[in-house]
Amino acid sequence: MIQDFFQKIINHKYLFLFGLFLLLGTSLLGLNNFRFDASSETLVLDSDVDYQIYDEINDEFGTSEYVILAIKNDQIFSQESLIQLKALQDKLLALEVVSDVISILDAPIFEQPKVSLIKSADNDKYLLIDELNLDKAKQELSTSPIFNELVISKDGEVTAMQINLYDRDDYSQAMAEIRAIIGQQSDV
Predict the structure, then answer these.
(1) What mean pLDDT is reported for the chain?
(2) Of 1, 56, 68, 92, which sits 20 to 30 A from 17 (CA to CA)?
(3) Beta carbons of 92 and 99 less than 8 angstroms apart
(4) pLDDT in tens, 37-62
(5) pLDDT of 178 above 60
(6) Within 10 A of 103 (CB to CB), how many other CB atoms are there?
(7) How far apart are CA 163 and CA 180, in angstroms?
(8) Half-sphere exposure of residue 5, counting CA atoms within 13 Å on the CB side?
(9) What's the pLDDT band for 186 if we cut at 50, 70, 90?
């Protein structure tokens, strides 16, 4: 029976290929209407205990939706680049959908001046706020086990911003606003 089916396909291969391409073409017409929902509501069972705990924590402490923005600039630790980074951070914070922005500007510098760990709790220094040697700050952050490869790359040329978002059903408008601001700030 299966052999007969395949034999008919081989005997009428051009008709079969035409039908296959017709089906493919018809399917492609509706491709722009295709939506895939990969949210936690569709991928996780409501009866999953771990998901219920996560959902409770999320309700208590807020959303965990965020966007990571990577910025490549070999002069990121120049005063001018840090000021531009601060301007970008402020513009992003001004968006209604953005709850918080975390960047290297928020990373404490512990080793200027070098003090003990106990004293460093009262001696935090920050880029653009405190008078710091930017080369030493770059060295400290790029070799730090806390910040290395999270907010800055090992070579100190790529930094990241975590843009935390308020909970929304649809983030397409938020992403468009974020992209517009990034597009305006091409000099970072």
Answers:
(1) 80
(2) 1
(3) no
(4) 766 666 667 777 887 887 788 777 76
(5) yes
(6) 22
(7) 14
(8) 2
(9) low
Rounded distance between C-alpha atoms, residue 146 and residue 5, angstroms: 64
Q: CA 180, CA 84: separation in Å to the nearest integer?
A: 16
> Does position 119 have pLDDT exceeding 60, yes or no?
no
C-alpha closest to that of 67 among 152, 162, 186? 162
Q: Which two tokens stand for residue 55?
A: 């959902």
Tell me what percent of the chain is helix, strand and coil, each rounded to the nearest 5. Answer: 50, 15, 35
Amino acid at 68: I
Widest CA span of the chain, in angstroms? 85
- Three-class secondary structure of residue 62 per DSSP: coil
Q: What percent of the chain has pLDDT over 70?
A: 80
Q: Which helix (H) or strand (E) holds 74?
A: none
pLDDT value of residue 78: 80
Extract the tokens encoding 56: 């409770």
Phi, psi for residue 165 in degrees, rounded to 5: -115, 150
Amino acid, single-letter form, for residue 67:
V
Taking the model in full, what pTM does it have? 0.60
How many angstroms separate the CA atoms of 30 and 19, rounded?
18
DSSP string covering 123-170:
--B-TTTS---HHHHHHHHHH-TTTBTTTB-TTSSEEEEEEEE---S-
43: number of Cβ within 10 Å = 9
